[in-house]
Amino acid sequence: MQKRLKGKVAIVAGAGSTGVDGLGNGKASAVVYAREGASVMLVDLNLEAAEKTRQMIEQEGGTCFAFQANVRQRSDCEAMVQKCLQEYGQIDILHNNVGVEPKTFGGVLNTDDAEWDRVINVNLKSMFITSSAVLPSMLERGSGAILNISSVSAERLSPGLFLYCVSKAGVNTLTKAMALDYADKGIRVNAIMPGLMDTPMVERHKEFYGGDREKMRQLRNERAPMKRMGEAWDVANAALFLVSDEAKYITGQVLAVDGGYLCKP
User: Fold this and answer.
1) GO:BP terms for this protein (predicted)?
2) Which domains are seen in the chain, by residue range?
């Protein structure tokens, strides 16, 4: 196997998976990075989930370690950077995967200030904090790649998901603004917008389908132009390209990994 990330060090924020044993986008990306030769710091609020990812990587012979952090807290992110530099001596890649959905589906009048703050802080502010913690090290080295995980919801609005849509639209703008600010410093910033994915995070959507998970999966598959949902590996493989040197002239881009979903009228 070609080691496309040989000698690289990656921090994956949100490297565990919802439900611990599932396979989400962050977990899959961390595994792919390790397979391609990167040393990976697995960051998650749920240390047990990060440890599950560590076990998966180490069983394949990869190099990694798990670290518990709340990426909404600057002190935790600063400790994250310090620990990574202590263990590996450098930071080449920051993969921001942390995200949540609103606790309830609804519009402005169904959302209180606390819920607004929770979703915006997790989905958007956390990426600002992790990036600002990592950037000094990248600037010192004169290189680096930051990848933010957004969503097609940033561009394709859905009734009842206004807060999630707003937060992900913010991620896209943050990505482009950072890319412009640091392009001449050797630092690239891109984002991925997953579409209809078959990952643990969508499990709660079954409430829209009377609690029937199989019905939910069937109808979500039908909504996708390719007539199937994507997998976490689809996001991971796109992420690998964007953080690798093969994408050295790509920055400020927001890539839809959606099976053509955004092409639908």
Assistant:
1) fatty acid biosynthetic process
2) 9-200+232-259 (3.40.50.720)
